[in-house]
Give the backbone structure.
Amino acid sequence: MTEFALVVPVLMVLIMGVLDGALLMFSVGTARYGSAEGSRVAATLGNVANTDSQVVATVRNIVSGTKLFTVDEVDIYKLNQDGNGNLTPDPAKINKYALDGTPLNGTPWPASSRNVGNGTSDFIGVTVNYTYTWKAGFFAPLGPLKTTAVSYVRIEPQSY
């Protein structure tokens, strides 16, 4: 009986840790899926006027089904490609949005300015910044976990 009393607290910590880890991994997967679908929508729409609102709506529809994490912002930005094919975000062309679609920094990279030419189209990135709060009380001292889900894709040509 004494052994049981010694093992139960350790067992409960392990069970709660596995459960919280599983919820975290589900949150990571959901955010990545939202980011990937958002970038797919952005690539398909190209330079259509409401591209960014459609991207944010896509992300919102995917992540609104769970209350495990909160989305802080959705970033849509241009990627520059160097001579080796490496992609880096252009700091001057990042559109930041709240999950409800409200622009947080204006729109320094409007959809109408995106290159959708055959063979020369821009690369676009979508980042979902979100916060996961631990569900098990003993992980609370770690504080909320702020992380991101990123997806890059080339905008599909609108003419051939």
